[in-house]
Amino acid sequence: xxxxxxxxxxxxxxxxxxxxxxxxxxxxxxxxxxxxxxxxxxxxxxxxxxxxxxxxxxxxxxxxxxxxxxxxxxxxxxxxxxxxxxxxxxxxxxxxxxxxxxxxxxxxxxxxxxxxxxxxxxxxxxxxxxxxxxxxxxxxxxxxxxxx
Length: 148
What we know:
By secondary structure, the chain is mostly helical.
């Protein structure tokens, strides 16, 4: 093969590559043109939304601040009420504890009194029976020690 033939073949290959590159560039330009309009609309919508948000941000901040103030006020009220209820509950528990202690002490006293009342007649009867036995024992033994 001659040198000119190789050059011709190289020129054809380069020409094909240039045509292919041109076709790819044209196709990319067409595709970009198709997407350019929707991207432009999308970007415009984003800018419009961000503008609305920027305009509403102070109002939202003010509303959040008011809500925060109301929540803080309610929390302080609830805290005060909870403290008051806790104090009242503490006093009620203290009074209930004292009342239960008095009831227990009184029940113990009543139990001791009842025990004394129930046992006293038995103690007296036991003492009388012991005295009668002793007297009978002395009487039945005889008059061994009778001084008369």
